[in-house]
Predict the structure.
Amino acid sequence: MSDLTFDGLGLGADLCQVLRSAGFVTPTPIQAKAIPELLTGKDVLGIAQTGTGKTAAFALPLIEQLAISGRARPRCPRALILAPTRELAAQIQAEIRRFTAGHKLRSFCVFGGASIRPQAQILARGTDILVATPGRLIDLINQRMVSLGEVRHLVLDEADRLLDMGFIADIRRIVADLPRARQSLLFSATVSPEIGELARTLLKDPIRVEVTPKVVSVDAIEQGVYAVKGDAKPELLRQLLAREDVRKAIVFTRTKHGADRVARRLNAAGIEANAIHGNKTQGARKKALDGFKHGKEWVLVATDIAARGIDISGITHVINFELPHEPESYVHRIGRTARNGSKGVAWSLVEPAEGKQLGAIERLQRNDIPRLEAPEGFAPVVLSTQGATRRGGGGSSRSHAGAGAARRAPPRSPRARTSGPSRSPQSARSQGEGRSFGEGRVQGEGRAQGENRPQRQGRTQNESRPQREGRPQGERRTATESRNAKGGASRPSKPNSGKRFGATPRPARGRNHAA
């Protein structure tokens, strides 16, 4: 397949010329498999990791088919591409603009965090290819600023991420407005039962194109794990970023507030860093990405929103300040480095509570990640990854290849059941057994065998209970005495007694209130 070119995939001469001018010569495996099928109009289920060229795999056939079928009417796009994040949508739009340099097709990108009026004005001029995030697209539909009645091509990019972010209801709402006669494409990095169900509802007799290896390959990335306590992570991160070989790095956290906190600490330590996450406005996110791309800040602290679809060249290191909950997200995180045939480094700062996530990542990759020795001053930490215990930290690091299984305490032997009168209860208790059900107390323990329980002291057996003093027999107690006998305090009567707390007496009917 190395001798295959884009001319042999069925693309037109004009589009192939644009690809050659942009430096695209040899198609990737996902492009070589998907483009011929898409040009025939078939639905496609594509399974491919990020960085495999899947954007061009679905964009090039769309451009080829739309270029020969007229122009779009105002507010009526002819192709719709849904993306989970603003950054991924903007990147798809940028790629489409590169490919449509020799065509008159119009493409546009809409997403939240920006004013909706300018977007509606551009849509009113007519857009052939619309790239959108689900939330903003529904806003435009509800305000009748866009109509999906003429969409003939639907693309769901990063479908697994769309489901993870809770967009399934929005997707169904959007699909309900689409015409039935359409070509549908679904691309995902992972396959799950939810993805399978979504594919069954959207696709008609789809062609499955899969280039993801069964074992996730990250050969071009040098991985390593630093076992460290949670409160020591900020200092270890600062020392790692101070190394000379770290020129441009992305630091991943699990939460938005965690990203802001790490960025503030790095800036306080003299390291230029900026944070990007979902709570940032579109302007702030764009400013952070532009500053990172052009070298204004050489450290970008991000949540998983930046783990997919952001193609920034020159990233030398990826540092996981916190491991993700899903092992697949780890692969997408470290995939931000070692792009376009370059080498990269991925470090993970792992505390003992994250041992379960580390074990899931290693099972996904089917190999252990090497344990690295932390600098001096960091206490040794033991990591347990569900079945294997490995030690890491300052001076006590053990190689991942030589890490053995954790020693477990021997199982406790079951208690033996006694049968027959050969053993006395006292001898059985001496070996750790308790009394069996119905067994009496042995002699010498508290009371002799056969001894009756002694009577209570203070009153003879036939002595009657004395009468209470202060009230003749047969006289009833007052309410105050009853409360005092129960431990309550005597309360004075209230003029509003028996009524609701705070209520004022209602005046009698017919009486002059002003009097």
In short: The first helix runs from residue 13 to 21. The chain is about 30% helix and 15% strand. Residues 169 and 190 are 20 Å apart (CA to CA).
